[in-house]
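idk why but the lab printer keeps eating my pages so im just putting this in chat instead. protein + protoporphyrin IX containing FE:
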Amino acid sequence: MQDVAKILVFGNICLLVFGFDPYTLPHFGSDSKSLSSSEDHALLLGGAFDEIEEAVIYRHVVPMCVWKFQKMLQIGVEKKVARYCKILDEFLYASIEMKKQELSTLGNNIINSTTEKRDLLTHLLVEEEKYSNKFLRDVSISLIVASRNTVSSALTWLLWLVATHPDVKKRILEEIKQVMTTKTSSSGGFLSEDELNKLILLHATICETLRLYPPFPIEHKCVVEAYVLPTGHCVRKGTKILVSIYSMGRMEEIWGEDCMEFKPERWISEKRNIIYVPSYKFMTFISRPRTCLGKTMAFMQPKSMTSAILWNYKLDMGKIVS
Ligand code: HEM
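predcted complex ->
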């Protein structure tokens, strides 16, 4: 399920960043020559992201000298990293060049288009011509990496929790029916942003999913300067701190006695608004100053996808075949 969700999210983020869907594109790069379709090419890119993300985790668990040595000799995991980075670079630089050509062909038509309709690359290139290709590549890759695994993990757990809690599923469907207009029901059940904002129970269900199953279960920080924490603990410069976001989402002293239960209602006030929970309690998006910049999008995508799935299909857990 998460593999399908990753494909969906990758397509969405590419639309946002580049303005095109990678599943409909011609192939870029030497590694893609043997591929028979755009879909295969997009899967190759997805695979490259997966491999690199795994290698980044590896770099966190082995001593730095080990992976640096492997990198220098181009052996082991680092050999794979170099290959997959090349695949991604070819895709990203070709996408940037394509966008630049499109801009020079369409010129004023794009420049005069409303900013809400522009993809990120167009926006950056129209606002500031001097950004280097490397800068544009780095911005694009950060957004793809930040959203692909996180949103797909959230969506997978969300669908599983909804499928295994028929009462919640029934009430979400009733909520969708209430906000849905004739226009959206005839367009396949894809709700507008305003309609999605009215889905309070679905929003609460996503919060509850992210509390119990945070896509980043552990956060890793390094102390820059010696500091005394409010608890009185001294931390020395260079100390590595691991915060278990997963455990914090299941702590009785934070969430109460029913902390292990799936209860979307805990996020809804008597007046049917979402209850604000400070980020130092609900750590899924980390606290300031480095809080997640894509939080709104992190809710919008699962909301839009889940409401369309529930509207069009019957969501149930299939039989597990051993
Ligand atoms: C359920 C989905 C998501 C979760 C749980 C999540 C969680 C997080 C977390 C924990 C961080 C802090 C990482 C760190 O400092 O080590 C972070 C940072 C970030 N996230 Fe998200 N994220 C999600 C979706 C997204 C999306 C969809 C985008 C944008 C398209 C995004 C963009 C970013 C960016 C740009 C940062 C870096 C912020 C900075 O360092 O200043 N995230 N996210």
